[in-house]
Specification:
Layout: E1 2-8, E2 11-18, E3 21-24, H1 25-28, H2 34-37, H3 43-48, H4 50-63, E4 69-71, E5 77-78, E6 86-90, H5 94-97, E7 111-115, E8 120-121, E9 127-129, E10 137-138, E11 141-147, E12 163-170, E13 173-174, H6 175-178, E14 179-181, E15 187-189, E16 201-209, H7 210-213, E17 220-225, E18 228-234, H8 242-250, E19 260-262, E20 299-304, E21 308-316
Parallel strand pairs: 6-19, 8-16, 9-21
Antiparallel strand pairs: 1-2, 1-5, 1-16, 2-3, 3-4, 6-7, 10-13, 11-12, 11-19, 12-16, 14-15, 17-18, 17-20, 20-21
């Protein structure tokens, strides 16, 4: 199942992508029963509804009248969800660690930071380059895990059972805020101001349920900026797998339905070409090395196999 959120006369509505159509779940629900309708107020409510909501949605999709269907290619999408919390793992691809300045823990344990739903924008919405925040705006395609079942101290062996599905997040980063070095050459990251700001988490275009993804460690991942291929890798290159990241974050938090975990990015970032911030000057084979950081007018496309393409334009703040 592919969940979307779309705009109808300015109102956010929850739908399911079915072929070339989007089925409006509330419009297709042939009941006024409040207990059933609450499942379809938004994606987080649907995820909390678990099997009951899923079965009801499948029935709606199968029986939806024409009045509950709309063409996907002419419908404006919003971010498919506004996560309750975005838990973030940095430095989770070995080749990304080889292209940049690293902290003492890079590649030794997941780097832990947080974004909020205030950072989220949807497909087609602008990424704002605010020069009062950064002059070195970078983009990173990342697989995002959507939590479906609550748990604390979750074992790796059962971690995938807690995942509802997956989407794409662009981990937009202010590199000149993030990367710090002292006179002795030690590197550390300021992951608050460097990572969490308005429009720093484009998310979407859909949430794909875990049964349709299968093994999350075999997905191709690409970033294109103005049609130039900048990143090309697979989730098989993660240092810590999706299951291991669910386990890791569940030690700090009770993971709850509607939380999101983002899983790191591979090599090919603009940072790799910025020697002032410790970039190696190298790029992976087959991609176009960045000539600089993102600028107003740039079109950023984040693509992950089985999920789709998240497309946003950079605009001046």
């Amino acid at each position: 199942m592919k969940l979307v959120t779309f705009f109808d006369a300015g109102e956010r509505r929850l739908g399911v992508l079915a072929g070339g159509d989007i089925v409006d779940l509330l419009a297709g629900l042939l009941t006024t029963d409040a207990a059933s309708r609450r499942h379809f107020t938004d994606a987080v409510a649907f995820i909390r509804g678990a099997a009951e909501a899923r079965v009801l949605a499948e029935r709606i999709v199968a029986q939806a009248p024409a009045s509950a269907r709309r063409k996907a290619d002419t419908t404006e999408l919003a971010a498919p969800m506004l996560p309750t919390t975005i838990l973030c793992s940095g430095s989770n691809y070995l080749d990304h660690n080889q292209e940049k300045a690293n902290t003492p823990i890079s590649g030794k344990e997941p780097e832990f930071f947080i974004k909020t739903s205030d950072c989220v924008v949807g497909p087609g919405e602008p990424i704002v380059l605010d020069e009062r925040v950064t002059r070195k705006l970078d983009c990173e395609t990342e697989l995002a895990i959507v939590i479906g079942k609550a748990g604390r101290h979750i074992p790796v062996a059962s971690a995938l059972d807690h995942i509802f599905g997956y989407t794409i997040v662009n981990d937009v980063t202010a590199r000149d805020r993030q990367v710090r070095r002292n006179a002795e050459g030690m590197v550390w990251y300021e992951l608050g101001r460097g990572k969490a700001f308005d429009s720093s988490a484009p998310l979407g275009p859909v949430i794909v349920t875990s049964d349709e993804i299968g093994n999350p460690q075999t997905l191709a991942l690409k970033t294109r900026i103005n049609c130039e291929l900048r990143q090309s890798s697979t989730t098989a290159q993660m240092i810590w797998s999706c299951a291991e990241l669910v386990h890791f974050f569940s030690d700090n938090f009770t993971l709850r339905p509607g939380m999101v975990i983002i899983t790191g990015t591979p090599a090919g970032t603009a940072w790799s070409q910025d020697k002032d911030l410790g970039g190696s000057g190298k790029s992976p084979p087959g991609v176009v090395p960045a000539k600089g950081y993102c600028q107003p007018g740039d079109i950023v496309e984040c693509e992950i196999e089985k999920i789709g393409v998240l497309r946003n334009r950079v605009v001046a703040g």
